[in-house]
């Protein structure tokens, strides 16, 4: 094939810089899109949490299955350069299709017909999975191809740079795209800006493609060598078939089942395949680690949506994943230059397989930490009525205490002035009416509650009678996206006009209640204004907090000063997002011990020409891990999220123990020695043949 002229720049082939920039843009594009994906499913496509989790992990699994395809195409057919080129085009189209699919105006801005959005999004994601997966095994190897044999040191530096550009890309995009998503945009309706959050990654993918093409004259393009993966598979297949054919007693046994392939394949390939299979056997338990690891983008992001992200500035729930790349950038050098040398000093032999076992154990701990955080969140999480039930809460806005008796003969409650009960749950069919008694007056209020709904009864005792108002709350879930809602009760003697900040609640008669309205910034405070024909009163609200719902009664107006009472319908997100940091820290330590070590170990245990087979096996474990989550999320009847976390922690701990046992039986080898042995034998055979030829020629 044509090879480009190698232009050098600071001792590196110049083409390398194009490859590193290309990788940065591609990773930015991928991680940026992936960061907002879960919330796109739950908030824009309105999918239920479990379904969104399942589709997210299906997508990730696809992204890790397609590399095997990419490697085969590159090695057997197109070569790395063309594979990267064509699949990058597919990838860029996929990103563009996804961002078009997230435009809410596709169907004329109606939220009920999402079919075109779903169709385009799925097509986009499939193209992205083909693209990102297909080029994944090619890019780093293509970079390695650019170096000459004598540039070992530079090649090493390149791989470090390459890894750095991956993390820099994911770090920046995880910071930027959720911010873009949280911004509002739209022609008809203002809502979260997914087209922008997906559009920026699409543009970066286009840039990655252009950068890659610009460098094309300089690249060293190695001809496709044929795919070793197919060779190995054929060899294994033949061995099994041959072994099956000779299963009767009369045939002598062979030392290893793979030796049955020696009738057709050479000894060296068989020896190399044996080394690979020993490593692949150890891979069997690994998917469980990835099942846990990849939930950062699904379950943990959904967990963060019920948390308080106020760090002095507001952090989006999908931005918490950024903790992982930040910690990786810090931890990898620290562990390599500090932790491992210390362990060595203590005379401990911390072998790669031991590191991986500890990594799995830390991954299991991370999920225990996630479960503990979930328990804290559940404590403040509202309970909504189940099937057949309704909930009612009573607010006494008057000056005198009252007792309310639920009919027929259920409970009675005492309510002090300016106080409320929490939501009380009843079987909707059983509750017929309630009776309010306050200082010798009493009133019966008939109730006809619909099941699954929440109601509020507002009442007060005046001098001569009890007035009351039953309101349907029309709210059956905690406000999504961390929003906050507020509504007002007019407890003043005359009709008022209410505004809060820029929100106008309109005119309100005595003892009436407004609809809920969204608080624009839940961490800000607003001026509440109640105006009557003659006079106006104001007061400044408190900070409501993310995810909260409040009812506010306007009680008095004295000297233009408004006096109000807050009734909390749904508590704000009180558990701080910072509590997710321990689980992210544990999981990142696990990743450093497990993932970084795992690949190095694999490569050290097999001949260099088998690296692609091992990489394929490694990526396969990630894909299978994501399929495990998909099955658990789909099949689990666990309704408590913390229990699902504990289940995963327990499964990983179990697998960790199995892996430790398997690892203790593994003996480390040096593939180079075995290779050298073969070289020596081949040379000896060669010499023997030459000697024979000499003898023959003399005769």
Please give a structural write-up:
The chain is α+β, with helices and mostly antiparallel strands. It has 3 domains: 8-226, Growth Hormone, Chain: A (Up-down Bundle), CATH 1.20.1250; 285-380 and 576-691, Up-down Bundle (Growth Hormone, Chain: A); 389-570, no CATH class. 53% of the residues lie in helices and 16% in strands. The protein contains 15 helices and 21 strands. It has helices spanning 15-44, 49-101, 115-145, 152-182, 194-214, 228-245, 267-283, 287-293, 299-304, 323-345, 352-380, 581-604, 611-635, 641-664, 671-698, and strands at residues 8-9, 12-13, 184-185, 191-192, 389-396, 402-407, 412-415, 419-420, 424-427, 433-438, 441-446, 454-461, 466-472, 484-490, 496-500, 503-508, 517-519, 527-531, 536-540, 549-558, 561-570. The strands form 6 sheets. Strands 5, 8, 9, 12 and 13 form a 5-stranded mixed sheet that branches. Strand 18 and strand 19 (536-540) form a beta hairpin. Belongs to the major facilitator superfamily. Proton-dependent oligopeptide transporter (POT/PTR) (TC 2.A.17) family. It holds the Pfam family PTR2. Residues 679-699 are annotated as: Disordered.
The name CATH uses for the topology of the largest domain is Growth Hormone, Chain: A
Shape: elongated
- The proportion of strand residues reads 15-25%
The biggest sheet amounts to:
5 strands, mixed
Our count of helices gives: 15
What CATH architecture label of the largest domain applies?
Answer: Up-down Bundle
How many separate domains? 3
Helix content: 40-55%
Taking all Cα atoms into account, the compactness measure Rg is: 33 Å
Q: How many beta-strand segments?
A: 21
CATH superfamily label of the largest domain: MFS general substrate transporter like domains
Family: Belongs to the major facilitator superfamily. Proton-dependent oligopeptide transporter (POT/PTR) (TC 2.A.17) family.
InterPro entries: MFS_trans_sf, Oligopep_transport, POT_fam, PTR2_symporter_CS
Region (Disordered): 679-699
Keywords: Cell membrane, Glycoprotein, Membrane, Peptide transport, Protein transport, Symport, Transmembrane, Transmembrane helix, Transport
């Amino acid at each position: 094939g044509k090879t480009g002229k190698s232009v050098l720049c600071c001792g590196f082939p110049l083409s390398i810089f194009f490859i590193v920039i290309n990788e940065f843009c591609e990773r930015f594009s991928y991680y940026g899109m992936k960061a907002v994906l879960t919330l796109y499913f739950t908030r824009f496509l309105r999918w239920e949490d479990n379904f969104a989790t399942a589709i997210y992990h299906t997508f990730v699994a696809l992204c890790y299955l397609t590399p095997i395809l990419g490697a085969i195409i590159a090695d057997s057919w197109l070569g790395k350069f063309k594979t990267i080129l064509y699949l990058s085009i597919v990838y860029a189209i996929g990103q563009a299709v996804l961002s078009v699919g997230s435009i809410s105006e596709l169907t004329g801005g109606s939220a009920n017909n999402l079919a075109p959005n779903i169709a385009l999004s799925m097509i986009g994601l499939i193209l992205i999975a083909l693209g990102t997966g297909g080029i994944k095994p090619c890019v780093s190897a293509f970079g390695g191809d650019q170096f000459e044999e004598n540039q070992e040191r530079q090649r090493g530096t390149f791989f470090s740079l390459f890894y750095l550009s991956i993390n820099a890309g994911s770090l920046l995009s995880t910071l930027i795209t959720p911010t873009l998503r949280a911004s509002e945009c739209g022609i008809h309706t203002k809502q979260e800006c997914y087209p922008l959050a997906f559009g920026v990654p699409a543009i970066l993918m286009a840039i990655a493609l252009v950068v890659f093409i610009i460098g094309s004259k300089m690249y060293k393009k190695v001809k496709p060598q044929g795919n070793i993966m197919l060779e190995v598979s054929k060899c294994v297949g033949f061995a099994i078939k041959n072994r099956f054919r000779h299963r009767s007693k009369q045939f002598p046994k062979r030392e290893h089942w793979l030796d049955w392939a020696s009738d057709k394949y050479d000894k060296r390939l068989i020896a190399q395949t044996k080394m690979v299979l020993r490593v692949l056997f150890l891979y069997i338990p690994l998917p469980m680690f990835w099942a846990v690891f990849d939930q950062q983008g699904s379950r943990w992001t959904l967990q963060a949506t019920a948390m308080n992200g106020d760090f002095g500035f507001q952090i989006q729930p999908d931005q918490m994943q950024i903790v992982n790349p930040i910690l990786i950038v810090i931890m990898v050098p620290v562990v390599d230059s500090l932790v491992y040398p210390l362990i060595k000093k203590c005379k401990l032999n911390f072998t790669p397989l031991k590191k991986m076992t500890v990594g799995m154990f830390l991954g299991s701990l991370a999920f225990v930490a996630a479960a503990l955080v979930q328990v804290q969140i559940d404590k403040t999480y509202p309970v909504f009525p189940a099937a057949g039930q309704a909930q009612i809460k009573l607010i006494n806005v008057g000056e005198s205490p009252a007792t309310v008796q639920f009919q027929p003969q259920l409970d009675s409650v005492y309510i002090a002035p300016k106080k409320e009960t929490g939501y009380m749950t009843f079987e909707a069919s059983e509750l017929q009416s309630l009776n309010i008694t306050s200082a010798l007056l009493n009133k019966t209020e008939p109730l006809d509650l619909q099941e699954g709904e929440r109601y509020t009864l507002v009442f007060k005792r005046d001098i001569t009678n009890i007035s009351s108002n039953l309101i349907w709350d029309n709210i059956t879930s905690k406000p999504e996206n961390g929003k906050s809602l507020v509504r007002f009760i007019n407890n003043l003697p005359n009709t008022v006009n209410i505004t809060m900040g820029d929100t106008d609640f309109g005119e309100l008669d005595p003892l009436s209640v407004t609809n809920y309205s969204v608080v624009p910034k839940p961490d800000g405070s607003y001026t509440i204004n109640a105006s009557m024909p003659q006079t106006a009163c104001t007061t400044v609200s408190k900070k409501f907090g993310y995810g909260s719902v409040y009812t506010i009664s306007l009680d008095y107006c004295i000297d233009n000063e408004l006096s109000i009472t807050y009734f909390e319908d749904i508590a704000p997100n009180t558990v701080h997002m910072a509590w997710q940091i321990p689980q992210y820290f544990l999981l990142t330590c696990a990743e450093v011990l497990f993932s970084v070590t795992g690949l190095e170990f694999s490569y050290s245990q097999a001949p260099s020409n088998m690296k692609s087979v091992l990489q394929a096996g490694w990526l396969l474990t990630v894909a299978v891990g994501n399929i495990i989550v998909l099955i658990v999320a789909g099949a689990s009847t666990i309704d408590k999220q913390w229990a699902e976390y504990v289940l995963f922690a327990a499964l990983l701990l179990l697998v960790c123990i199995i892996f430790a046992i398997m690892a203790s039986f593994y003996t480390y080898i040096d593939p180079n020695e075995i290779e050298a042995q073969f070289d020596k034998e081949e040379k000896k055979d060669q010499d023997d043949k030459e000697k024979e030829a000499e003898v023959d020629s003399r005769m």
